[in-house]
Amino acid sequence: MRKIIIIITTALILTSCSMTNKVTRSSQYSMMYEEKPLTLLVMPPINNSSNVEAKELLYTSISKPLAEAGYYVISPMLAMDILKAESAYDSELFFEGNLAPFEKVFGVDAVVFSVIDTWTKKSFGIQTKIRYIIRSAHTGETLFDRSCDLYLDLSQSSGGSSVLSALVDLAASAIVTAATDHIEAARKANYYIFRDVPRGKYNPEFGLDGDTIAEKKDVSASVK
User: Fold this and answer.
1) Against a cut of 0.85, is the pTM above it?
2) How many CA atoms lie within 13 A of 198 on its CB side?
3) What is the pLDDT of residues 82-97, one digit of tens each?
4) What pLDDT, in 10s, does the model give residues 34-71?
């Protein structure tokens, strides 16, 4: 009986410690809950990869998951026209700089930056590594910062194991990769990052998700 009590007590202690080590969204993204940004401006991505098209591909896909999370996002097309007119297209110039001009021109509460470190087409898919940062347009503080190392698997299964089958798989995969818009890789990365963002005013979970257990800040995934 004594051994059983010891085992149960130990299990309860371990469970308690496990729960204690969990970090909530309100703790991990405390500044988001404090400032409660409503309107966001998505800046053109900073492209450190060798893929020259990655910047445009990612830019067109960031707004949707943020809007679904409950934020009002300035239209990317409208924003791009204004940014070009104001010679503010290069996000590198503002990544760590003063964001007050964006608050004045666009009336936004926060600015969304993204940094593409890897965007590579492989034989059977696409490898991306992207970091996403949301900074306050009022204070310049970082409200949200996560990265995603994601592999989009586009391989096709032929159901065989011979050398010929492997060659068929490779050829089919190459065709699929060439025909598949790389935007799908961006959408997957955006999904994995922003599924943990605190919900905005236009989402039913606004103000209610603070106790939700937060995900890791650095995400690594392989998806189909």
Assistant:
1) no
2) 25
3) 998 988 889 999 999 9
4) 999 999 999 999 999 999 889 988 998 999 999 999 99
One-letter amino acid for residue 134 of the chain: I
Residue identified by tokens 């964006």 is 102
- What is the phi/psi pair of residue 197, to 5°? -70, 140
* CA distance linking residue 81 with residue 171, whole number of Å: 41
β-sheet bridge partners, residue 145? 133
Distance (Å, rounded) from C-alpha 35 to C-alpha 115? 24
List the chain domain ranges: 24-116+129-147+185-212
Alpha-carbon gap, residue 208 to 180, rounded angstroms? 38
Write down the pLDDT at residue 172.
47
The CATH number of 24-116+129-147+185-212, from 3.90.1150.10, 1.10.3210.10, 3.40.50.10610, 3.10.350.10, is: 3.40.50.10610
Structure tokens at 35: 């400032």
Query: Which of 44 and 121 is assigned the larger pLDDT?
Result: 44
Lowest-confidence range among 50-54, 135-139, 149-153, 169-173?
Answer: 169-173
Pairs from 176-183 (Cβ < 8 Å, separation ≥ 24): 177/121, 177/123, 177/124, 177/125, 177/126, 180/154, 181/57, 182/51, 182/53, 182/54, 182/57, 182/119, 182/121, 182/126, 183/57, 183/60, 183/61
